[in-house]
Write a structure and sequence with these properties.
InterPro entries: CysQ/Inositol_MonoPase, Inositol_monophosphatase-like, Inositol_monophosphatase_CS. By secondary structure, this protein is an alpha+beta fold. It is built from 11 helices and 17 strands.
Length: 344
């Protein structure tokens, strides 16, 4: 006689499956929970680490910028015209700096949004963070200030002041990184490739910079763009009088540094101003890092109408800007001619 097999009813099969699932759950619940916790942890980023990587990225990009300039291998070409009709240049310095900066940031923090002035499809998986946190950052910035990765937008300018770069006016050139959280600038890094100096700050935590000890407000000295100096000079003279000192300079990063107290060894290479005014369109990767630095030091960067600038979404800031630190920003704004009239 053949051996009899065990036959389960459909109800029995269901009960058996439920028991099996229960056993598996108890066996692996801990593993699943730990993995979910790790996933949630990865979705947050530490601001001190973001600052350290931002500094490293700006320095690496700056090395490329300096190398290309010293080798005179710019290979410059036009990207087209700005909305104001100015020629936008692209050089190998811009491109190689972008590759270093973008890949380092994206490889280290793949969850965050990174916006760069340049666009390039070259992927460099070898661009990894050294895990080094500079001593001055360790000294001034606390760890554990985490923010959700989905709230972070990183703006990078691989080479600010490209026009001046092609003219070998290298004192104006910077590389910049900014971290915005929910549209507000929180981390700012401005690096000068040709001096090796790097300014950095985290809003609410600290900076290696400070405002100057004294400013003039009657009238203030104002720094403006070289490329739009004629129109902005008239605007400033209407606001503060014909005796106002106006300095023309390249690069938004450089202009922000002119408002700050520079280290003694850098002072001679940076002009000084009480306010920075810009009246035409400007991209957010040009100004976000400076906005973070100024905010961290108690200063301001607003539109000409005094509005805060949202550093998320559209990269174009259409409202002009006024930047200051150590002076009454509201008083500056009140003296400016009507922005709506200026647009027409």
């Amino acid at each position: 006689m053949a051996p009899m097999g065990i036959r389960l009813s459909p109800l029995g099969v269901g009960v058996f499956c439920l028991l099996a699932v229960g056993v598996l759950y108890h066996l692996y619940a801990g593993v699943i929970t730990n993995r979910l916790a790790a996933l949630r942890q990865r979705r947050k980023v530490d601001l001190r680490e973001l600052l350290a990587v931002s500094v490293e990225a700006a320095v690496l990009g700056g090395r490329e910028v300096k190398k290309v300039r010293e080798e005179n291998s710019l290979k410059e070409k036009s990207k087209g015209k700005t909305k104001e009709g100015a020629n936008e240049l692209l050089t190998m310095g811009d491109l190689q700096s972008h590759r270093k900066m973008y890949n380092l940031l994206k490889n280290t923090f793949p969850e965050v949004t990174v916006n760069s002035e340049e666009h390039d499809n070259m992927v460099d998986k070898a661009a990894t963070w050294s895990r080094d946190i500079p001593a001055d950052i360790l000294d001034k910035i606390e760890r554990g200030k985490d923010v959700p990765s989905e709230s972070v937008t990183v703006w990078i300018d691989p080479l600010d002041a490209t026009q001046e770069y092609t003219e070998n006016l290298v004192k104006y050139v910077t590389t910049m990184v900014c971290v915005a959280v929910d549209g507000k600038p929180v981390i700012g890094v401005i690096h000068q490739p040709f001096t090796g100096f790097t300014a950095w700050a985290i809003v609410g935590q600290g900076s290696n910079m400070g405002p100057r000890s004294s400013y003039t407000v009657s009238p203030p000295s104002v720094i403006v763009s070289r490329s739009h100096s004629g129109k902005v000079k008239n605007y400033i003279h209407d606001a503060f009088g014909n005796s106002t000192t106006i300095t023309e300079a390249g690069g938004a990063g450089y202009k922000v540094l002119s408002l700050l107290e520079m280290p003694a060894r850098e002072t001679a290479s940076v002009d000084q101003a009480d306010a920075y005014v810009h009246i035409t369109f400007i991209k957010k990767w040009d100004i976000c890092a400076g906005a973070a630095l100024l905010t961290a030091l108690g200063g301001h960067m607003t539109t000409l109408k005094g509005e805060d600038i949202d550093y998320s979404g559209d990269p174009l800031n259409k409202g002009g800007l006024v930047a200051s630190v150590g002076v009454d920003h509201k008083a500056l704004l009140e003296r400016l001619p009507n922005w709506d009239l200026l647009k027409h």
